Amino acid sequence: MKTCHYRIAILVGVVLLTPVRQGGALAERVSADNAPADASALLVSAQHQFGLGNYLVAIAALRSVVLENPLSAEAFYWLGRCYYEIRDFDNAIAHAEKSVALQPQNSVYQDFLGRAYGGKADREKSFFTARKVKKQFEQAVRLDPSNIPARRDLQEFCMEAPWIVGGNSEEARAQVDAIAQIDPLQGHLARAAFDVESLKRLDLAEKEYIEVLEAKPSTSDPYFEVASFFQSENKPREMKSAVEAAALVNPNDPRLAFYRAVGIILVGTDLGRAEEYLKSYLASTPDRSDWPPHAAAREWLGCLYEAQGKRAEAAEQYRASLQLDPGRKSAQARLEKLEKPSK
68: which residues sit within 8 A by CB, 6+ positions away? Predict the structure, then answer.
């Protein structure tokens, strides 16, 4: 249901976070350093390459920036972002820590460092690293109480983390209330997530999401968050309403292809069109942490082929999904079921 796409599996529980779901918004909040003109141009170029999903190209440019200006907190931040996208969490942490050391009062940098710790904790299933995640999110909120992405990160950590690493439902509720005071629309989204994860009240969550739709947000992200909820509840009609509302706001948003395809597959008709949408999404978008992952698109393509009786093609897509994300349990289960010998 979430827009966040990484998980921290920690021995006795799962911590769900929301990594960089507002990638563009984060960039806007980061103030530029006083870098030389040529380094500034390289930094702009690197950010452009990041947006295109050319992370290795961006890393090369950013390395040049920090060679010229080793005090550029912004360059280290973007290096961390790049390494995070290619799932090199050690390097993501190392560079994020440098950005924080250079600008310790920057809430955005502190928040991202928490996400980088989260990626490492996920991979290593580490209590020690997981404890750092919450501390960073709390620091980001202290530095800038209006930083809603940081509050959402802290909320979701508190909802999903085992108590031993800082999970606390009441702390999550406090974040929901604070977010609602800052931005009522974001408050509805935060409360819906709390209703699902902490209260297990899908009916209450649905009411909150309907409130979001009725508010007619001016950006696409809230609509996609609503669409993801209805997807998880197997309500394609409601999902379609959210997706088409997003299309009215930004008809060129590449994510529309993914969500439209999923809605069609849930209905089970016009699968050829859904196939076109998914292939278009895979071909035209970078694999980035704040958008539906390519692993998910591959899995849905497998579901589509399986519905068409194309078992070999379906298995191929499930394997491709797992190659992109070896921890994707749903794709693993579908593949095992598909390959199970018939009695």
Answer: 35, 36, 38, 39, 42
With CA atoms as reference, report the closest residue to 314 among 291, 293, 331, 292: 331
Q: Which of 259, 339, 323, 326 is nearest to 297 (CA)?
A: 259
Which amino acid is present at 181? Q
Q: Which amino acid is at 339?
A: E
Token look-up 């108590």 returns: 163
Q: Where are the alpha helices (DSSP H) in 36-168?
A: 37-52, 55-68, 73-85, 89-102, 107-124, 127-143, 148-160
Among the listed residues 119, 112, 55, 60, the one whose alpha carbon sits nearest the alpha carbon of residue 87: 119
Work out the percent of the chain whose per-residue pLDDT is above 70: 89
pLDDT class of 340 with cuts at 50, 70, 90: confident
Kindly list the distances between the CA atom of residue 312 and the CA atoms of 10, 273, 315, 342, in Å, as whole numbers in the listed order: 35, 20, 5, 15
Written as six digits, the tokens of 269 are 């008709």
HSE-CB at 320 with a 13 A cutoff on CA atoms is 18
CA distance 128 to 121: 8
Closest CA to 255 of 209, 224, 298: 224
Maximum CA pair distance of the chain?
Answer: 70
User: Is 310 exposed, middle or buried (CB count within 10 Å of its CB: 0-12, 13-18, 19+)?
Assistant: middle
Beta bridge partners of 9: 14
The three-state secondary structure class of 221 is helix
Top-confidence residue, 27 or 133: 133
d(C-alpha 280, C-alpha 303), whole Å: 17
The answer to whether the CB of 169 falls within 8 A of the CB of 160 is no
Nearest residue to 81 (alpha-carbon basis) of 55, 45, 118: 55
